[in-house]
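Feature request, filed as a ticket because there's no other form

It would be nice if the structure record came with a short human-readable summary line next to the tokens. Right now we just get the raw output. Example of a typical job, pasted below so the devs can see what we mean:
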Amino acid sequence: MEFSNLKIYCVDKVIGATGATGATGAQGEPGEIGATGPAGPAPTLTFNPVVTGAAGTDPSLDVTGGDGAYTLTFTIPEGPTGPTGNGLAAYGGLYDNTDQDVALTTAATPVQVPIANPMALSNVDATANTITVEQAGDYAIDYTLTLSSAAPITDLEFAVRQNETDIPASVVTDDLAATTPRTYTGSVIVNLPADADVDIALTDPAGGGTVTVSNVILSVKKLDATTTPVTA
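Raw output as currently delivered:
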């Protein structure tokens, strides 16, 4: 057998370099939501006493424990020093719990109410029936007393007085029925000069009445501020 014009070729296979990565494809649709799992056990919480941290630090919470049982410890920093507080520069009072008859024999003439017992005092003097303030300033004056009479008294007046002059805001006029005790309580704020005397007086405009006075309290407090430091 003869072959004419026969050509034989030998070809080598060459693998080229990897091409560049293509663009990311579009995101697929979300899958279905899975079934709800069983409810876990309720945790048990224990709170330690709050710890006071150093001033200027941040508050913090420390949680320890596990498996549903936890212990919580709060740390709260110490606060800054508070503002200066307001104290009382002067105070004092008188009281008397006994029953005392006050004869109002002269018409329209004030008669001082007896108040025998002093309370605690500071920059205030208290003698029988009268409080004397040592410092000028604004004062709160508080008072209470119970009045009764065997016979009725019309337009009986009582008042807190400054140097034997009625303090207008304290004046009360009332009809006192026979054998019917009445209790009167009030408070006034007035400006008092140094060495002012404060007391209580009763007045019967017709004269001749007798009033039984009991459970009397008279006190004064100076309202001007003092400098007493207060810390938080």
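Something like this underneath would help us a lot:
The CA atoms of residues 116 and 225 lie 30 Å apart.
Residues 44-77 form one domain.
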